[in-house]
Design a protein that fits this description.
Layout lengths: L1 H7 L2 H71 L10 H15 L2 E7 L3 E2 L3 E11 L2 H14 L3 E9 L10 E11 L8
Antiparallel strand pairs: 1-3, 2-3, 3-5, 4-5
């Protein structure tokens, strides 16, 4: 039956049918083979562009990191070279003894020493220390001068000298509030 049907077709019809099959095969090839390749090629080009942008960004970030590392190294060197090295507040008793010794060398008589509660910040702690006692105004001024030279990590928060003008031979009383800047306590490492 198939042969009879083929015999009825003319050469032109067979050629047209063959051409139709070729066109259909070509279209099928384009749809199945070429269009996905074109899409992949377009996707690949977009990915290449994105990759180049990310490479430029990575290069810029690497330069930024190098600059920051250089700055950090400079800051660490400055800190290491700084003559003021903060001690931890664990050495409070030693600091109080050194302050009392300095006051005695200047000629002051210490009647009361009162340390306060440390206040923490990310980089340091401040420890208030209050000293009270007796001494003349020039002796108090000498103590402050020596304090600034020997303890550059200690600031004078307030200083009061009170004398009795009716008794000029009697020593004045003083009350000084100091702030000792101590190293921050080490934070526990997160695990």
């Amino acid at each position: 039956m198939m042969q009879e049907w083929l015999k009825k077709l003319s050469a032109r019809q067979i050629d047209l049918a063959g051409a139709g099959v070729c066109v259909a095969t070509g279209l099928l090839f384009c749809v199945v083979g070429v269009l996905p390749l074109l899409r992949r090629s377009d996707y690949f080009a977009r990915q290449q562009t994105r990759l180049e942008g990310q490479r430029r960004q990575a290069a810029q970030l690497a330069r930024d990191v190098a600059v920051l590392k250089s700055r950090l190294a400079g800051i660490r060197k400055e800190l290491a070279d700084n003559p003021v090295q903060l001690q931890t507040a664990y050495h409070l008793n030693r600091r109080i003894a050194e302050l009392a010794d300095l006051a005695g060398q200047a000629g002051l008589v210490i009647n009361r020493v009162q340390p306060g509660e440390p206040t923490s910040s990310p980089r340091f702690e401040t420890v208030p220390i209050r000293l009270a006692g007796n001494g003349s105004y020039p002796v108090c001024a000498e103590f402050l001068r020596r304090l600034g030279r020997r303890f550059p990590d200690t600031a004078v928060d307030s200083f009061q000298v009170v004398g009795n003008p009716r008794k000029p031979g009697e020593p004045a009383t003083f009350d000084v509030s100091l702030l000792w800047y101590a190293a921050a306590r080490p934070r526990p490492e997160k695990s």
